[in-house]
Fold this sequence. Notes:
Largest sheet: 7 strands, mixed
CATH class of the largest domain: Alpha Beta
Helix content: 25-40%
Low-confidence stretches: none
CATH superfamily of the largest domain: Translation initiation factor eif-2b, domain 2
Number of domains: 2
Shape: globular
Number of strands: 16
Oligomer: single chain
Structural class: alpha/beta
Number of helices: 11
Radius of gyration: 20 Å
Distance between the termini: 21 Å
Strand order of the largest sheet: 6-5-4-7-10-15-16
Amino acid sequence: MSTIQPIKWDVDSKTLILLDQTKLPQEENYIEYTDPAEVAVAIRDLVVRGAPAIGCAAAFGTALAAIEYTGDDPGELAAWVRDAMEVLSQSRPTAVNLFWALDRMGKFLDPLAGEECGKVRAVLEKEAVDIFEEDLAACKAMGDFGADLVPENAKILTHCNAGALATAGYGTALGVIRSAHRDGKVSMVWVDETRPVLQGARLTAWEMVQEGIPATLIADSMAGAIMAAGEVDFVVVGSDRIAANGDVANKVGTYTVAVLARRHNIPFVVAAPVSTIDFAIPSGEGIPIEERDPAEVAGYGNERWAPEGIKIYNPAFDVTPAELVTAIVTERGVLAPPYPQALEACRRTPAGS
């Protein structure tokens, strides 16, 4: 397992502890949270990011809301928690795991109506811990399934960060890479820097250095050149939402990588838990795409390089059509086209089977 712990839950103090990803790699700073509204801000401001990690944080934020309520009226407690969940739901629009986790937590409120408040708090805390632990197990399973697809002595390209930092602690795409490295299959990992927030340069590269996995950082614009040079054997990325037809939303720039991979006959694989699949959305056209602060494109940190007055467009994600996806790796196995049937069959497969 990865030694990186982006999310911790202190059972004694009932505190959520997040590794501040906005400060990496310069600082490893953990922030403590007891206020669910502050957890929502942490999600919005990328202190915690990555679809599975966002889901885990939202679940703990829901538990914190129940703990924050100090009265003894079960009805008031339920209303208090639902208000907090509404705030959490507005933190980021694209990562479906956020809404999946909130929905899962919310399903406990009605059956517990009228129960003593202490029981409600305990049940919600346990469910948040279960979501966290299930994500760790799911990522490990994905890693093992995905590693079987990786060729020997592989040069692998990945985009953005879908590692331990984006999950409860092992990773989806980087989980595949971790397991393949464990099996002696990885020659090199090409890390796209991932403009404009540099999740590849700051986070994926940091994870690779931390765990001794051979990696080389490149600008996003270099991906095609190294593919043309025969220096990429395999591409693996994560996802923030997968539509029912297999279209994949991931960090902006992923679609470009997928097109380049198809041009050069390189497998393009997506690793994501079943909770990332949104069966309510028929295709990628229905996936909401978050637009972020234009300042992220205009410069970085305290430095601005774009001229004042220039218009800026900053979508955080793009959609890769299912036809460009070689395989989708989930904790329940590897899915191959046609994806509508494969995803539906995956949904019907019992967890852990």
